[in-house]
Amino acid sequence: MTTVRELMSQNPVCIQAEDTLVTVAAKMRDAGVGSLPMCDAQQRPVGILTDRDIVVGSVAEGSDPERTRAADIIKQNPVCVGAGVPVDEALTLMSRNQIRRMPVIDMDQRLIGMIAQADIAREQSENQTGSVVTAISR
């Protein structure tokens, strides 16, 4: 049984509430990712921001990305998964919530990694991957 810990990306970058969308986009670019969690002072995820949120939820609406803060458009209370959870359960969470990426937390609810649909897809058969993509993309 493969666990989330075995497939997650480690050492995730966190964003801060006061970061502008330009700053967040640069952090995404530098990390090579499409989403970043926002963490509180104890490194607990309190939100998640995706590249799509920036483009569709802000720039397309005419907001200035140099003045708009992450806190202004962040999706609060992100769906998180424990590091010891089997990958099948993580996929169920992704499908149920129609998300492609999730923060991975330890026993103290602190951020320790990120897991993406692509991380899991690399470890599964084409048939399993197709079913997951279909469920998440509904």
Tag the structure with descriptive keywords:
39% helix, alpha+beta, four-stranded mixed beta sheet, CBS-domain, 138 residues, 7 strands, three-stranded antiparallel beta sheet
- Order of strands across the main sheet: 1-7-6-5
Helix-strand category: alpha+beta
- CATH topology assignment: CBS-domain
Helicity, as a percent range: 25-40%
| CATH homologous group name | CBS-domain
* Largest sheet entry: 4 strands, mixed
- The arrangement of helices and strands along the chain is HEHEEHHEEHEEHH
Mean pLDDT: 91
Quickly give the CATH architecture: Roll
Number of strands: 7
InterPro entries: CBS_dom, CBS_dom_sf, Diverse_CBS-Domain
Domain CBS: 8-66, 73-132
Protein name: CBS domain protein
Keywords: CBS domain
